[in-house]
Amino acid sequence: MEFSQVVANRHSVRDFTDQPVSREDLVDVVRTAQQAPSWVNSQPWRVYAATGRTLEEIKKRHAADVAAGRKGASDLPVMSRTEWSLATQANMAALAERIGSDLGDAASEFPAAQARMFNAQAVLYITIPTGSPLWSFHDLGAFTAMIALAAVDKGLGAINAYALVMYPDEVREAMGIGADEIVAVGIALGHPADSALAAFAPNRVDVDEILTIKD
């Protein structure tokens, strides 16, 4: 697939089929993502892939926590949307509007999909060392973006989601991740389902709104 097609086809897929993701594809996706730029070649990322029985156990515990109303406690801090910049708040509001207009009654599937972890057939948990400099978060973003693009190139869907790392204690226990690592990002992978939820993709702001060029 041409690179421009890969980028154009990438969006957050929120509904996957039951078809497994092969071990070979997982390895290839991560290997491709290793070409991401890294500050002074530090490559701070580590990847833990949950599949099969391990992932099923994580899903069960996650669903039970959500049903019980357990509050998330991610390793990375979160803040109220009202504290974000006005521009980013406008983008979030536009997303909510699109969800309502595009999905209608099916909009309730958004939170339901998170509770079932999107029916992902693999989840990659990406960590960086505790106490990492801010530059490592640049690396983290570059690496996880490359994972999403590499997944599309394999014919897979992907979504980076807070829901996947909101209970890091359970992820650590299931995956053997130590306290010296930040469970920073969770990426669900799978074969996209034939559903409106899987196909949903929000608009991006026009490039003129974010780009300044000075000669």
UniProtKB/TrEMBL annotation:
It comes from Actinomyces naeslundii. It comes from the Bacteria. InterPro entries: Nitroreductase, Nitroreductase-like. Residues 7-191 form the Nitroreductase domain. Keywords: Oxidoreductase. This is Nitroreductase. The keyword Oxidoreductase applies. Belongs to the nitroreductase family. The lineage of its organism: Bacteria, Bacillati, Actinomycetota, Actinomycetes, Actinomycetales. The keyword Lyase does not apply. Gene3D superfamilies: NADH Oxidase.
